[in-house]
């Protein structure tokens, strides 16, 4: 897998939380990115996994939304059944761990397109059920190939990775399909991410959160900026959700920063 890079986050000494967003938000599911969010350098630590299991034990759903291929993901994370559903290949397919069912949500680029990239010495190059991926130094070759073949494809950048997908496919479209099958409204989903390709995911969810190591542009648009990086931040978000709904968060919570501008937008999307 062509894995995006990651940076280390630090706790914010001036962290604070405003209750209004939490008062309007009732969570039925968590949608989390993998690389740079739940995982650090491809690995999920035990405390982060324990938080996921704690969240599921509360009766809620856990959805993984990732740019990775399922086969690649299974090599770095041995517990895919921790998730109710996995939105893979940046929204291009669904994987249901319970019965190991894969469902492609779009048609892949033609074989001739991939062959062209190979002949143009585009390396590394990876092909999933739908997605084709390489790294940023080859973006000009990729764009030229799309023009030459007259294809309706889009290029999504993600911390050095270049993902080629059918037009209109992203993490939000994949999550929308998963939620339809689960019977969950997007307004009842908390989304958390760290990178460029997580914008669509966070914009689609009823509550958006960014881990401490997220790109500045993502933090600016997230309703909640977590003080923890990577899996620690995901665990922090889970504790926030469970805490607010179990006891009203008496006395507040010191471990997150609420982004007021994004909070207003999120509040408008959340159920009353």
Tell me what you see in this structure.
With 272 residues, the chain is of the alpha/beta class. Helix content is 36%, strand content 20%. It has 10 helices and 13 strands. The protein has helices at 19-24, 46-57, 70-76, 111-119, 139-149, 171-182, 199-204, 216-221, 230-247, 260-269, and strands at residues 29-32, 61-65, 85-88, 93-96, 101-104, 126-127, 132-135, 153-158, 161-166, 189-193, 207-210, 224-226, 256-258. The protein has a 9-stranded mixed beta sheet with strand order 5-4-3-2-1-10-11-12-13, sandwiched between helices. It is globular, with a radius of gyration of 18 Å. The model is unreliable at 3-18, 249-255 and 263-272 (pLDDT under 50).
Overall helicity: 25-40%
Question: Compute the gyration radius: what is it?
Answer: 18 Å
Mean pLDDT: 88
The first-to-last residue Cα distance is 41 Å
Biggest sheet descriptor: 9 strands, mixed
**What fold name goes in the CATH topology slot of the largest domain?**
Rossmann fold
Number of structurally distinct domains: 2
- Give the beta-strand count: 13
Please indicate the percent range of residues in DSSP E strands (runs of 2 or more). 15-25%
Q: Which overall shape is indicated by the principal axes computed on the Cα atoms?
A: globular
How are the strands of the biggest sheet laid out side by side?
5-4-3-2-1-10-11-12-13
